[in-house]
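okkk here we go again. third time trying to get the adenosine-5'-triphosphate bound version out, last two times i messed up the smiles copy paste (missing a bracket lol). double checked this time i swear
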Amino acid sequence: MLTLHEVTAGYGDTTVLRDVNLTVGDGEVVALLGPNGAGKTTLLRAATGFLRPRSGRVSLDGKDMTAEPAHRYARRGVCHLPEGRGIFPSLTVRENIAIQARGRDVEKSAAEVVDLFPALGTRLRQAAGSLSGGEQQMLALSRAYITSPRLVVVDEASLGLSPRVTDTIYELLARLAERGVSLVVVEQYVQRALALARTVYILNHGAVIHVGRANDITADDIYEKYLGIGH
Ligand SMILES: Nc1ncnc2c1ncn2[C@@H]1O[C@H](COP(=O)(O)OP(=O)(O)OP(=O)(O)O)[C@@H](O)[C@H]1O
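finally!!
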């Protein structure tokens, strides 16, 4: 459903991505891995209309989206969950849900979120910034449920969270995948990403240096061959 063809992108005079090709099929889960500064966040931004490529082409279901802004991607079912959660800390949980709901019934959306994340049920009137890190990430993930997207792009969902909360977040991503939602997941924990994904892309210095099936590679291989961090 999503295709990046020879995408080059960057900021000001800095070129970050160079001729990147990437495809995500309907219902496919892609893990996007690579060292710090490799350009993973930049790739997600270029793939969802938040950063316009300098050259190359981004398309959704065959339609050229390269020059389109992010809200047009959203209208076509793309949900971008940025690093840093993308929630409004000074607004209440309910107000955040109202913004995520984008014109949908807020009560119904809030009920859906509470059903999915009972922990948020007693906190609807609380400022989102006063939630724990895990609860804030759950609130951020709510967007991917109440808007019924076809493609969800997730940047470092587990950053700073405990292993237990990370398990919960990954169960929810797996549930989205079971529903047939396509996912692109940037993750520092290679093992977790491999367990979820069908396809692995490894990025280094803004270029794709490996594409393959997640079943055909181990986390150790990825560290040794591509990330250069013996562990
Ligand atoms: N807004 C910006 N303006 C200028 N340069 C930027 C900007 N955002 C990122 N960069 C640079 O682009 C490069 C790639 O950054 P990016 O955040 O895409 O990498 P990443 O793989 O997601 O890294 P990390 O794992 O550390 O988040 C880095 O050298 C970074 O300094």
